[in-house]
Sequence to fold (528 residues):
Amino acid sequence: MKAEIYLSDKGLCKDSESEKIEFNEIVSMAMNGKLIKYILHFNALVIYSKSFNALPSPFLSMCICRLICKGHAEWQNEKGQIRKIGIALIWKLLVCFIKEHLTYKAAIRQIADEVAKLLEKEKEEPVLDLKKRPLFLRLDLTFGIMAGGSVGHIAGVVNNLEKYSGAPILVSSEPVPTVKEEIEFVLLDEEVPYRNVSRISAFMFNLVNYPVMENLVKDHDISFIYQRSGLDIYSGVKLAVSCNLPYVLEYNGSEVWCETHWGSNNLRFIELAEKIETLTFQHADLITCVSEPLRQELLSRGVDGKKIIVTPNGVDPERYYPDIDKQTVRRKYHIGSEKVVIGFIGTFGAWHGTEILTEAYAELRKKYHNIHLLLIGDGIKMGEVKRIIQMNQLEDSVTLTGIVPQKEGPLYLGACDILVSPTLKNSDGTPFFGSPTKIFEYMAMGKGIVASNIDQMAEVLKDGETALLVEPNSVQAVKEAIEKLIENSELRVLLGKNARKEACSKYTWEMHTGKIVTALRGRIEREV
Fold:
């Protein structure tokens, strides 16, 4: 049997008869001991990645590939270049592995020293010229993200910046779906050292990408720097300080908090990560955040309230609209046109509540047989969702699409009659600080919405007017609200119509971006 392990582009796997295994799935099996059943299991193996520089933990990754394959194994990038996974490659990677583990502490000290100097440095008052071009920085080390709220947010801002300034330049570690083709894009694909040591490569990426961005500033007239916050990222603020450019920080929450409460909770160098967050706050001319709880958090951390604005997420109403053909996706998954389809889209995160929705649906199926559950996306909670489906024998009335490309999201939402966002409370009792992009997409689609009555969702949605709001973390509350919409199609239409009107009048990405640029103009006194 031939196995194809891919990192991002499923289209690279051309042999439909091959067993295709997600790279992250292989890593997970290795960590929990389940990989043992795959030892020398495959006769041939091809691992595809976008580039040879993108693979995390390359030495251990190649060892795993070699361990599960008893025959020919190779590594191929999207350009078709091939490296044989044999003794020569593994030996070369081993040498690098040993070297990086022996020297990473010195590399961390270098980062810490640079951050400390930047914290002590005074930033001069910049000048803003909006006829020049903004530089949008997305600098987290990611690969293969095809969809999700972050994609929608980035594209939403980048696609609308030119309406308020010069043509933007997008700088990212990978392409961002749904960003307009005419947007100038700079890909950061340089080799990043210390990929063999957990968490170090993210720090080192600052040193790798800084010269690229510095050259962009030298070669273009830049009006301001807009940076999306991320774990261990500081090269954007360093660029702003060094080049005396206005600096906008898009703050979506503490990545340290998110990793601790929603991630693997195995962060290293937390103190340095927190100093980097503080550094970005300190030198930002404007901090845009998506919710009031985030503003309160920033204030509690000593950030000047005059530099903070709250701008909820938004939607492009020309991409998300009610009249999208609902039968295309239904036919693809053999969902009858007579079915009332209950939908959810997201990354199945710890806070999304997909397991709550699935349990509520299991209860509804005991009474209703003309309903279908369409779960769009994938993520860490998928295993629990599948368990609930199997336990209740719901396989014939639930469709799990997996992650779909961002551009196809509206088509999938169009197949639904009811859209649900059962967001959970934060486990530590703090306010939910998110601004779920799906809420605004649901609103623009003009569908009946069920959502948790929590923080920003309770502010944006009006119970009984634009949605039905329910007690978070409650299976019974979600069930009862969905049941009301199943029974009352006229209510679905009314809620959807009101929600669409609200989204178009208050929550478009164009409005969102305009508020940010206007606020920046107000903050920079010496505007040209």
